[in-house]
Amino acid sequence: MLRNAAHNGSISITVPIVVTSSILLLLLASAVWWLKMRVESAALYEPFVAVAIAVGLLALIQFGLWEVAGLGSPYAVKKHGFMIGTFIAASLAVCVTQIAVRILLNRQLHIGLTFLPISVMRWVTACLAVVAVLPWQGEPLAPVIRYDSAARAIAAAGNPTDLLGRTTSVNRQLPLAINFAVALAVLHLPGWTPAATDQFAAFGTEEPVASGVRYALVASGLPELSLTCVVRAYPEMQVKLVRRDCVDNSIR
Question: What pLDDT does residue 220 have?
Answer without folding.
Answer: 84
